[in-house]
Amino acid sequence: MVMNPDQISAIYRLQHEEKWSVRRIARELHVSRKSIKKYLLSPMGTPAARKPRKTKLDDFKAVIREFVERDPKASAVVIAERLRPLGFAGEVTILRRYLKTLREVVRVPRAFIRVESSPGDRFEVDWGHFGVLEYQGDKRKLYAFCLVECHSRRLYVEFTHSQSFETFMRCHIHAFRFMGGVARECLYDNLTTAVTKHDGRIIQFNPRFLAFARLFGFYPRACNPAAGWEKGKVERGGIGYLRQGFWPLRTFADLADVNHQVRRWLEEVANKRVHSETRERPDDRFRPETLQPLPALDPDYRDTVLARVHKDIRLRFDGNRYCVPRRHVGRMLAIKADSASVTIYDDENEVVRYPRSWRRGQTFGAERFEKELLAERPGAERTRGQQRLIAMVGPIAESYLRELANTDRSMTHQIRALLALVREYNPDAVRSALLKAQAAGAFGADYVANILLQAHNPRQQQPPLLLKDPSLSELATDPLSLLEYDTLILPKRSQP
Predict the structure, then answer these.
(1) Is the Cβ–Cβ distance between 130 and 247 less than 8 Å?
(2) What's the confidence (pLDDT) of residue 189?
(3) pTM
(4) Which of 78, 95, 218, 239 pairs with 276 at a CA distance of 20 to 30 A?
(5) Which CATH superfamily is domain 122-290 in?
(6) pLDDT at res. 106
């Protein structure tokens, strides 16, 4: 029986102070006399040492330690498979518990030596995640690209909505332009855009990233895994300082606003403060002449995709639709975008450019290119011509065209001809001719043209014919009817 400290104290008090017997104490405390005697002999009640029980692993512990020394990462399942032929009959659970105790070592905190870089020697680069920006209900993740010149602690920051390879390269170019050159080496964490494989000291860089590094003439270096102190200047002096010194108590309208504010912060605060380690201002300590020069032309690292133009003259990119001229329907066009613009190309020829929108579900350019599409269609031309004709001639043109539409004539051709008559004559003359043609039931531009021609070229009145005999000129003949001739001719034609 195991007693608590209060019971043990009561036993000693009753035994030594009250001089009670063991029997009386046992009766009073409802404890066996054997237990009382045990605690009187051993105040802590320490039980007698037991001989450790032999386990199924005892005969194999030396072999297990050898296996662990050969391969510290070997799993319990693999070691159990190696022990079975040697006679091990236990479960993997007992082996797993033993391996845990065997591998437990006292972890000594790692120490490192602080290394200061020379001017122009190293840039440190990293990303930071800063939540989201909202665009009227559409949310976009927000990232911060940070680059620090290690000697001066001069900082460059650019916010983006993407961590793609193209965005990563554009941020590099902007940072290099901001610094005025490139350091001899750039240090990175194990970013997938830069490092594709990291096995111990063997580092495999992204081939496209290596091509970029060769173009700008810097040597890329990657930190060891889980060794953030190797690029502490950008983690603490870049991302950490940005979170504490810039981000709190600010509101932003969009990505351009964030970058505008952070540029002002860099110019007025971050690179003008006295740094706690160097005791100098980063801008004053910075030595741009030690950096390597930049290429004359920046390479094109815009986000690039191919998209097909649908029949509605739209193609899709980044959740939005962009319109192009009708002649590109069915073709695959190249879309190139950065944080400011979206440009559409047909081979090497620029088709149209739009401002970059971070919203989704928007359509751009429809008003412009749909208007051009309507203008190219015959129906649209007819509608525009009708409006011009009615505006110049008046309501009679609308009613005349309505009757003209019931004929089998081409409306497009008829409207063009009527507009030509307006240009040849004048609106008042055409209006009068349309009234006469409508009254006569003659619908067609040729009828109107004939009326206008007769009105502007009237026949001259011929003088009476004078005969030599004046009496003959005064003769009057009876009016003749041709019907009599028809009655004579038609029956004959009807005979077989």
Answers:
(1) yes
(2) 84
(3) 0.59
(4) 218
(5) Ribonuclease H-like superfamily/Ribonuclease H (3.30.420.10)
(6) 39
